[in-house]
């Protein structure tokens, strides 16, 4: 997907966290995509790996200092919306930062004024124009049947949710639940980077006490493999259309 790649292993980058999750390769890949200079993370960091929340989001600030303007994120998530099917791709239009309700926000601590303001706005976290373009690209590629929009809720993990928790999150307005992305978005938006994010619905959240289904990481990885080609096509076509962007968060 990336042309002329130059690859750096996280373990070789001073102070960079290390990937510990199966399926997360732990490499930064620099190169071009559709002629645009890009850096890709092959593997991200999560609260459940035991990292401080500021460490999880350190790459966002590194990218900002490198001149990155637009962040495109993907994740795997459990589907809470009863209209979603396994394999659907949800464009994230908003998030619920559940750990944030208990004070776990990556911007806690002294504000880094060189990146952004003390109290950044989050009502525009997921760029409206990129979402519109992604829906248009999805329609052109014939992906409309499985392309959805919705609200992503982050939890700390690593245990998957109980049935009661899934029911509660659904009632609160979440369409999908996962363990990533939101902290990165908060730090990227604080620094004025434009954000776009996709959730691959890798499993259905279990909402029924009679159900025999069980969330598991193997299903998550397998759904990822099955949709990989289409996700690559969607993201690369979108990147080809992204315009230069120089917003600074208010
Ligand atoms: O959000 P990503 O890292 O895509 O992966 C999701 O899938 C893993 C659980 O199977 C968790 O890491 C969860 O956050
Ligand atoms: N929390 C959570 N994260 C996931 N990542 C992939 N599927 C799920 C899920 O069902 N719940």
From TrEMBL:
Gene3D superfamilies: Nucleoside phosphorylase domain. It holds the Pfam family PNP_UDP_1. It catalyses: guanosine + phosphate = alpha-D-ribose 1-phosphate + guanine; 2'-deoxyguanosine + phosphate = 2-deoxy-alpha-D-ribose 1-phosphate + guanine; inosine + phosphate = alpha-D-ribose 1-phosphate + hypoxanthine; 2'-deoxyinosine + phosphate = 2-deoxy-alpha-D-ribose 1-phosphate + hypoxanthine. Catalyzes the phosphorolytic breakdown of the N-glycosidic bond in the beta-(deoxy)ribonucleoside molecules, with the formation of the corresponding free purine bases and pentose-1-phosphate. Preferentially acts on 6-oxopurine nucleosides including inosine and guanosine. Pathway: Purine metabolism; purine nucleoside salvage. Keywords: Glycosyltransferase, Purine salvage, Transferase. It comes from the Eukaryota. One of its GO terms (cellular component) is cytoplasm. It is an enzyme of class 2 (transferase). GO terms for molecular function: purine-nucleoside phosphorylase activity. Residues 9-239 form the Nucleoside phosphorylase domain. GO terms for biological process: purine ribonucleoside salvage. The keyword Transferase applies. Belongs to the PNP/MTAP phosphorylase family. Its EC number is 2.4.2.1. This is Purine nucleoside phosphorylase. Homotrimer. The keyword Nucleotide-binding does not apply. The lineage of its organism: Eukaryota, Metazoa, Chordata, Craniata, Vertebrata.
